[in-house]
């Protein structure tokens, strides 16, 4: 049975606001909190800003947090004529920075948002301070077990978009959780409201067809050569039940980033930031606050990986 927690409970005591920006004609939603150096939170494919609802409060203690709905997601516009390639979504994020007056920021991305964050660090290193890749997408998924997980995700995504029933949407969200019983009922309602918005079914259908199309995906895979070009200090956060790519896959795949460290969160799947928020927030905030040398020493002493 889905839980009855609401996003309001997670934001109690936090001074926050929901804002909409005109990003070159694309109305773009951002949930914001705190003051200080900026950090951009990017959700996964088919997701929305509420992905980060258990992280905004703690991080807002010394940072300005921006959890945005990316192009064609959430309550951001979904233009019919967009192709929703990784390059287009990335360009929208860059233009959001310009619209919000942000020259440089820390970037934290989950799943597809991790892929976009990594490409920000590759293509726009002058705009990225530190980089956090949380169960990030972008690594090739070519093994049989990975292909099975991809097929499962696509089937659940297609059903949730076409049917929008409680059961179909809950099944799609459950893919993110180690314990499906922990899926908040409110998140089912949030996604149903999003799926009813103009253009969203079109945008997400296009996006997922491109993410997992072998020919198109190859253009944006995070290959060793591309990852070696990331200069930002990077933290990779993974989980013990993550679908598609295991922790071993992540350690091998992202090891080509020159300044990288890893942390494994247990009893979580694709949403460790929501399933285990206390550990996630502690590890990520320590990384953001410490310089690279001190953090590596701390990580070596405390890592569960």
Element layout with pairings:
Layout: H1 7-11, E1 16-23, E2 26-33, E3 38-42, H2 56-59, E4 64-68, H3 86-100, E5 105-110, H4 112-123, E6 128-134, H5 144-163, H6 166-174, H7 185-195, H8 200-211, H9 214-218, H10 224-227, E7 234-239, H11 247-254, E8 260-265, H12 272-275, H13 277-289, H14 292-302
Parallel strand pairs: 3-4, 3-5, 5-6, 6-7, 7-8
Antiparallel strand pairs: 1-2, 2-4
Helix pairs in contact: 3-4, 5-6, 5-8, 6-7
- Distinct helical segment count: 14
Mean pLDDT: 93
The largest pleated sheet is described as: 8 strands, mixed
The total beta strand count reads 8
Helix content: 40-55%
Distance between the termini: 31 Å
Characterize the overall form.
globular
Count of discrete structural domains: 1
Compressed to H and E, one letter per element, the order equals HEEEHEHEHEHHHHHHEHEHHH
Physical arrangement of strands within the biggest beta sheet: 1-2-4-3-5-6-7-8
The CATH class is Alpha Beta
Description of the structure:
The protein has 305 residues and is of the alpha/beta class. It has a single domain (7-302), classed as Rossmann fold. It has 14 helices and 8 strands. Strands 1-2-4-3-5-6-7-8 form an 8-stranded mixed β-sheet, sandwiched between helices. α3 (86-100) packs across α4 (112-123) and α5 (144-163) packs antiparallel against α8 (200-211). It is globular, with a radius of gyration of 18 Å.
